Amino acid sequence: MWLSNRFRRVVIVGAGLGGTATAVRLLQFAREPLQLVLIERHPEYRSAGVAYHRAGNHWHHVFNIQAGRMSMFREDVDDFVAWANSEADRTGWPPEWSGFTFTESGPAPRRIYADYLADRLVQAACEATDGVTLVEADGEVVDVEVDGGHAHVVVDRFSLIRNDSDTAPDRVTLRADHVVIATGLEERDLPFAADVMNHPSFVRHPYSEEGIARILGIGRDATVAIIGTLLTAYDSAALLLRRGHTGKIAMISRSGRVLRTYPPDHRHRVLDLPAPRLHSDSYEGRGGLLQRVTAEWERACAIVAREHPEVAPVVVSERVAKSWEPYLPEVLARIPSADLRALLDQYGTLLAALRVGAVAYTTEIVDAAMDDGGPITLITGKVDRIVGTEAGTLMLSVAGSSSTQTLEADLVISNFGREPDYGRVGSALWAALLRKKIAVRHRRTGRGVEVDGSGALLGPSGVASGPISVIGGPREGDEIVRLGRIGAFTFNLAAIKNHSVGVAATLLRRLESCYDEHAEDLAETLTEDLEVRQAFTRSVMLDVRRMTARRSCDREVLATRLEASLAGIRDATSDSEAPWTDRALRSAVNTAAMRKLNDLSVTPRELRGLLGLDEPLESLD
Questions:
Q1: Confidence class of residue 579 from pLDDT cuts 50, 70 and 90?
Q2: Which of 510 and 492 is assigned the larger pLDDT?
Q3: Cα dihedral sign, 280-283-288-294
Q4: How far apart are CA 221 and CA 596, in angstroms?
Q5: Coil, helix or strand for 313?
Q6: What pLDDT is attached to residue 33?
């Protein structure tokens, strides 16, 4: 039954955060029968991904940002905290967390996020429109063939989860009306560790069950080297310190930058700052651009300090970076691609540190251990090579600015090592897509792949390769040049929230018969008349409510009211030379509603207020 082509089918590749979030949105938004097939190659990553899965995240691993920013719904900022306090099953939780009351500005363990995402997926499936179904499966998607308006998805070791049959996993090919690729972050090769990759004293994957076991199993007086000085390093160091580690810990990175600590009452906020003066008559080269950026950055920070004294100094850089986002695409467009790539490579760590800090639960214990006489030493330099010794330890060669030093360690912990260049990733799927030119590397940045504004995968000619959309990490380069997002904000939870809304809404406008996918720009024509503009705005807000409603009965009521509102627009424009069809009107309204939900100029809490989601429905009359 599940293989029947009776209904349209969307295959989602990857069931981590991006895939699960997109599945939830499709289950919410779909108005006509649709089958969703959600496939995960790593069963332990389902509804979690590498960042949140239980086996690889100790209870001491908390979100780097506040619990109040972890809702999967941008329009419902309190959803995760409400779930954690009133819905989460705390059976088996340790005493530290079993009686804990979660708050907007406080910490929360990352491993519970998988339960949250799974609960919301189950809820969305139960409340989906009749005929909209979810199929979850394990397996690795290794290829996609495009055939006109359809795709054929090749899956190795395919098996349904929650299936009572004894059928062995097998290779299958699924016909799909649309494919969503949400494969998460790709892992980078580590040439400096090639000799020790399988050494028992080298932890390549600190966010894995085996990695956690090795970290916790090392002697308390052992010497430990951690490659990196940001979040992964802090997680590993904090885990060691909380179990009473007394031995020396070296944290090593080329930049030497460490995490900032968020204030205890920190809330995300968007400041309206003057536009940075980053333009000149011609491109002045990397050096000139950096001088101009530095001067404007200092000016912006001074403005924040003077005009917004309530902003804690530690988050000023985050506020400035966010305020610059709308202006950066035009600036970046003037930079030659080679220079842009070099700048991103050279200052990537700085960009990450500017935009993201961590909560005190993680940073305080590590920062205290860095004080004079503490067990943690910060080393600035590049790890050139790691080799084993006869004693079973590892020897690291670290090149600094003026000399090279060697360091012997009983345990070496790697950082995640994200690979942004998709021409180098080890994924069979991405290798196949690139080889067949269904996908191309992002030309300007070399990070991720080429997509359009809605996330559709593009080929060499710059047009969509087929019915394939992309979520999350593979869109990094596009997020940089199109939206001015920098650092982890190109692929983190905030970006994925927006991607999931945009991809789900866009592909449904293509697939569902109630829409005319070619009529999305109708809004400009419709809103010329005041009466029509008011009716259009009312329709958009009704569609926003329909799309964000969790219960099917509420969506049915809102859909009925939306149709009545659309009828009013039709009547008001019936005398025009070319009356708009129902399908065209729905598309125009839905496109505008999607854009409102993805408004990046405001915080999620501000967005909810602007959308009026807490106001009675009668307020739209």
A1: low
A2: 510
A3: positive
A4: 55
A5: helix
A6: 96
First to last CA, the chain: 44
The Cα 234–Cα 63 span in angstroms is 12
Under 8 Å between Cβ of 469 and 179: yes
490 by DSSP, 3-state: which? helix
Q: Which pLDDT tens digit goes with each residue over 58-87?
A: 999 999 999 999 999 999 999 999 999 999
47, 121 in Cβ contact below 8 A? yes
Beta bridge partners of 138: 40, 159
In this structure, which amino acid lies at residue 495? Answer: A
DSSP state of 190: -
Position 3 pLDDT exceeds 60: no
User: What is the C-alpha to C-alpha distance for residues 527 and 523, in angstroms, rounded to an integer?
Assistant: 6
Alpha helices in 476-551 (DSSP H): 476-483, 493-511, 523-526, 530-548
Distances (CA, A) of 526 to 71, 107, 580, 591: 35, 47, 9, 13
Q: How many C-beta atoms lie closer than 10 Å to residue 460's C-beta?
A: 12
Percent of the chain with pLDDT over 70: 95
Go through 226-261 and write b for each residue having 16 or more CB atoms within 10 A of its CB, e for each that does not: bbbbbbbbbbbbbbbbeeebebbbbbbbbbebbbbb
Q: What is the DSSP string of 348-411?
A: HHHHHHHH--B-HHHHHHHHHHHSTT-SEEEEESEEEEEEE-TTS-EEEEEE-SS-EEEEEESE
pLDDT over threshold 90, residue 545: yes
The strand order across the sheet containing 404-409 reads 382-388, 394-399, 404-409
pLDDT band at 229 (very low <50, low <70, confident <90, very high): very high
pLDDT band per the 50, 70, 90 thresholds, residue 534: confident
User: Do residues 199 and 394 make contact, with C-beta atoms less than 8 angstroms apart?
Assistant: yes
| Closest residue by Cα to residue 362 from 113, 50, 65 | 65
Residues paired with residue 396 on neighbouring β-strands, in sequence order:
386, 407
Question: How crowded is the C-beta side of 469, counted as CA atoms within 13 Å?
Answer: 26
C-beta neighbour count of 263 within 10 angstroms: 16
Query: Exposure pattern of 288-304 as b/e (b: 16+ CB <10 Å)?
Result: ebeebbeebbeebbebb
- Report the interhelical angle of 285-307 vs 316-324 (nearest 10°): 120
Closest alpha carbon to 80 in 55, 47, 117, 48: 117
3-class DSSP string for 216-274: HHCCCCCCEEEECCCHHHHHHHHHHHHCCCCCCEEEEECCCCCCCECCCCCCCCCCCCC
Q: Three-state SS for 315?
A: helix
E strand or H helix that includes residue 552: helix 552-572
Q: How far apart are CA 493 and CA 389, in angstroms?
A: 41
Locus of tokens 């003077």: 306
The 10s digit of each residue's pLDDT in 283-341 is: 889 999 999 999 999 999 999 999 999 999 999 998 999 899 999 999 999 999 999 99
243-271 confidence digits (pLDDT tens): 999 999 999 999 888 999 999 988 888 99
What average pLDDT is seen over the chain? 92
- Confidence tier at 1 by pLDDT (50, 70, 90): very low
> How far is 355 from 319, CA to CA, in rounded Å?
8
309-325 pLDDT tens trace: 999 999 999 899 989 99
The answer, yes or no, to whether residue 194 has pLDDT greater than 80, is yes
Edge-first strand listing for the sheet containing 202-203? 202-203, 411-413, 224-227, 249-253, 376-380
